[in-house]
Design goal:
The chain is mainly β. The protein has strands at residues 9-10, 18-19, 27-28, 36-37, 44-45, 50-52, 54-55, 60-63, 67-69, 82-84, 99-102, 111-116, 120-123, 127-129, 142-145, 147-149, 157-161, 169-171, 175-180, 184-187, 191-193, 205-208, 210-211, 220-222, 230-231, 235-240, 245-247, 251-253, 265-267, 279-282, 285-288, 302-309, 314-323, 326-327. Mean pLDDT is 85; it is low at 1-11. This is Beta-2-glycoprotein 1.
Length: 350
């Protein structure tokens, strides 16, 4: 495009003729294919400027002049230069220990994401990209186990590890069991573990636990009458006097809370006397009460009485139990009188 000079020069021979000067136009930044690369970000170029054309990473030049020139008309010279999208491939990623990798392809521009399993720290790059030269941008990282120091030991305590420990460090997943020196007792979780954060779980405490001297039980005796504090897990045994029967555990234990376990009790014989002529079912056989040896039924024992079915003129058995010296006599039972000729137990059973 031509432009006249702002100051017109007059020719004395031809007064009406204006003299114009030609001013060259600039070229705008060329719009080429998306795969063609032009260095820099300049927007306008003067005539005569030459631009070198290259391909973006991963693309290859195919044909045409690899440069264009800005002409005085403000146009770029023509070119059929273009780039081919034949992408290189990187080697297939290899698996690595104690972690996982995630990717969708191994062509140029693809990425790999690396992660480690719980309790392991990633050493190296978390991601890698497939480059134009067919190689990954970073080597395969390493997943290194989290380390803790040695487990803290409570006062008057010790720990037993689940495996041999060498040096002053332990790895994630290592665990141990705390023990306290007698008479100390563990308060807290006895199991300790090296966690994924590189620290040990909470350390328990070792404390002394004692129980007061145990009390005696009614109608009974105990194996230890010492008036002193008893240590945790110490035991005391109980027994019953005469023919009283022990109900419950025969011994008590000093528990972790400083209390004794539940004491037993002594249960007695029945208080109601029944005529010796009565036939009963006791310990699997028929016998008269006067034949009992000893002459009583003991606590928790079962004894069966015979009752009369008046309508059918036959007898049947009703069991009952001795509970703490008491036997509940069945309502149907009738104790024979002195002048009775026969007893229900002597009649045929229903």
């Amino acid at each position: 495009m031509s432009h006249c000079l702002s100051k017109v020069q007059q020719n004395p021979q031809f007064p009406s003729l204006r003299v114009c000067a030609s001013v060259p136009s600039v070229c705008a930044r060329p719009e080429l294919g998306g795969d063609v690369h032009i260095k820099g970000d300049q927007r306008y170029f003067n005539p005569g400027v030459r631009l070198t054309l290259t391909c973006k990473r991963g693309y290859s030049p195919v044909s045409g002049p690899r440069s264009i020139i800005c002409s005085t008309s403000g146009k770029w010279t023509r070119t059929n230069f273009f780039c081919s999208g034949v992408f290189p491939r990187c080697p297939h990623p290899i698996a690595f220990s104690n972690g996982e990798l995630h990717y969708t392809d191994n062509v140029y521009g693809s990425t790999i994401n690396y992660t480690c399993h719980k309790g392991y720290n990633l050493i190296g790059a978390h991601t890698a990209e497939c480059l134009a030269n067919g190689s990954w941008s970073a080597p395969v990282p390493e997943c290194k186990s989290v380390e803790c120091g040695l487990a803290p030991i409570p006062q008057y305590g010790a720990i037993i590890y689940n495996k041999m420990i060498r040096g002053n460090s332990t790895r994630y997943g290592t665990w141990g069991t705390y023990r306290c020196l007698p008479p100390y007792v563990i308060f807290g979780d006895a199991r300790a573990e090296c966690t994924a954060s590189g620290t040990w779980t909470k350390t328990p405490e070792c404390q002394v636990v004692t129980c007061p001297p145990p009390e005696n039980i009614d109608r009974g005796y105990k194996s230890n009458n010492e008036q002193r504090p008893f240590d945790y897990t110490e035991t005391v045994k109980y027994g019953c006097l005469g023919e009283f029967v022990l109900e419950g555990s025969f011994q008590i234990v000093c528990q972790k809370n400083g209390n004794w376990s539940e004491k037993p009790s002594c249960k007695g014989e029945p208080t109601r006397e029944v005529s010796g002529r009565v036939l009963i079912l006791y310990r699997g056989r028929n016998m008269y009460i006067k034949e009992l040896k000893p002459d009583r039924v003991l606590h928790n024992e079962i004894v069966s009485f015979y009752c009369m079915d008046e309508a059918r003129k036959c007898d049947y058995v009703v069991p009952t139990q001795c509970i703490d010296g008491e036997i509940i006599i069945p309502e149907c039972f009738e104790e024979p009188s002195v002048h009775s000729d026969s007893l229900p137990s002597e009649i045929a059973q229903c």
